[in-house]
Design goal:
heterodimer, A: alpha+beta, 5-stranded mixed beta sheet, two-stranded antiparallel ribbon, elongated, B: about 140 residues, mainly alpha, 5 helices, binds iron/sulfur cluster, binds FE2/S2 (inorganic) cluster
């Protein structure tokens, strides 16, 4: 609990009736009819209220923030408010030192994965009215905290790069023989989901195998490798090269199918399924001893 | 530079209330696996020390061989009967979840992995309850 926060319980709730309904959050559209109704009900309940958020604070460079703590903020609720909106409001109105990453605000850039009420979620894709209050907002677990909600992503990026996440071709034709490399619609369909990754790191943070084995490639990197290994346009040899990377000690075999990553991925990528498929590919490759 | 601080168990088992189905399945599978290994060794220890009368016809006829008396003694204990029910539950769950994991490895029905976990739990419960009369007959408390 902070002592330095003003906690304006009900003051300055910017209730602009014109603004209501102006936003139509993507999350709402994805849900089934019943869910939408329920969601609308909860939203109506929160109308004119404030939402209580508890935000993790830590800053090694500021004396009174060296000891990690939670700060409480009461943010006036507006229709369609996301977790990201709430922390932005808290930062803009109450405490400008509150630090977190965000950019696109539409689940595209992958910079605002937080640990919200015990689950890795994208701040901008999570409706605050869907959550139980007080909403606990913490930095991603199993990653080092730089400041407040900002974690060090270097290790995650290293793992992503370790799988050579770019298209490779054995025999790029010389000069003018170059032509478009077409992909069949079926093949495109196969790798479609895997290509949706926005590098948010939620999956890696949720995986307790990755937490215990720092060298484990992790779900996102393996999924990235899947995208290329399953692409027909890359030749056999390159696919084998990719599988050699994946079948190492800290590759696909570390996965123990806990489904934590699949559970939290904001882009609904079937991560466990992809990892399992690569395990089978690796076995098949090694069984070809003739 | 980033600095780490220790969030301790909060990051892991302190969050048990928030675990999802797949995570519980993993924990139970490990737990039952270790239980079964533990049982195996206890089992070997009991049998190998009570086998003294093996091959001794006379002792067997006189119903005084160590093996039979040991087992009868154990079976007379309510606690042992209870543990047997527990052993059955542990083994059944491990088998059922093992089948579930086999399906997961083959890439079959991954969307329903949580449901198959709940199904294993329910089935385990049903089989365990159904076994109680058999395991607990003829034992005095
Ligand atoms: S796989 Fe999903 S959870 Fe993992 S980094 Fe990509 S978008 Fe985020
Ligand atoms: S702000 Fe870009 S993903 Fe949320």
């Amino acid at each position: 609990m902070s002592t330095q926060q003003a906690e304006p319980e009900s003051q300055e709730a910017p209730e602009d009736p014109e603004m209501k309904g102006a936003e139509s959050p993507a999350a709402e559209e994805q849900k089934g009819g019943g869910m939408v109704e329920e969601h609308a009900e909860k939203e109506a309940e929160l109308e004119g209220e404030t939402v209580h958020i508890k935000v993790f604070r830590y800053d090694p460079e500021v004396a009174d923030k060296q000891e990690p703590r939670f700060d409480d903020f009461h943010v006036p609720f507006t229709k369609g408010m996301t977790v990201l909106d709430s922390v932005m409001y808290a930062r803009d109105e109450y405490d400008s030192s509150l630090t977190f990453r965000h950019s696109c605000r539409q689940a595209v850039c992958g910079s605002d994965a937080f640990f919200v009420n015990g689950k890795q979620r994208l701040g901008c894709k999570t409706q605050i009215s869907d959550l139980e209050q007080p909403v606990r907002i913490e930095p991603l677990p199993h990653q080092e905290v730089v400041k407040d909600l900002v974690v060090d992503m270097d290790h995650f990026y290293d793992q992503m790069h370790a799988v050579e996440p770019y298209f490779q071709d054995e025999d790029t034709p010389e000069t003018d023989a170059l032509e478009e490399q077409r992909q069949s619609p079926e093949n495109r369909e196969k790798i479609k989901m895997s290509s949706r990754c926005i590098w948010c790191g939620a999956c890696m943070s949720s995986c307790n195998i990755a937490a215990g084995d720092n060298e484990y490639l992790g779900p996102a990197a393996i999924n990235k490798a899947y995208k290329f290994a399953m692409d027909d346009r890359e030749g056999e040899e390159i696919k084998e090269h990719r599988l050699r990377i994946l079948e190492q000690e800290h590759g696909v075999w570390r996965c123990q199918t806990q489904f934590s990553c699949t559970e939290v991925c904001p882009k609904d990528i079937p991560l466990t399924e992809h990892i399992q498929e690569l395990k089978r590919e690796a076995v098949k490759k090694n069984l070809k001893f003739w | 530079m980033s600095q780490s601080y220790n969030r301790g168990l909060i990051e892991d088992f302190g969050r048990w209330k928030e675990f999802s189905a797949g995570m519980w399945a993993w924990i139970f599978h490990k737990f039952t696996g270790w239980m079964l290994i533990g049982y195996l060794f206890t089992h070997i220890a009991v049998l190998s020390t009570s086998i003294g009368a093996a091959g001794n016809e006379a002792a067997i006829m006189a119903e005084s061989d160590v093996y039979t008396t040991t087992l009868q003694g154990l079976e007379g204990l309510f606690l042992i009967r209870l543990l047997e029910v527990g052993l059955l539950a542990v083994a059944v769950f491990h088998i059922l979840n093992g089948l579930r994991l086999l399906m997961v490895d083959l890439g079959v029905g991954l969307e329903a992995q949580d449901k198959s976990f709940y199904a294993s739990l329910v089935l385990t419960g049903a089989i365990t309850v159904a076994s109680v009369p058999t395991f607990l007959t003829g034992v005095s408390l």
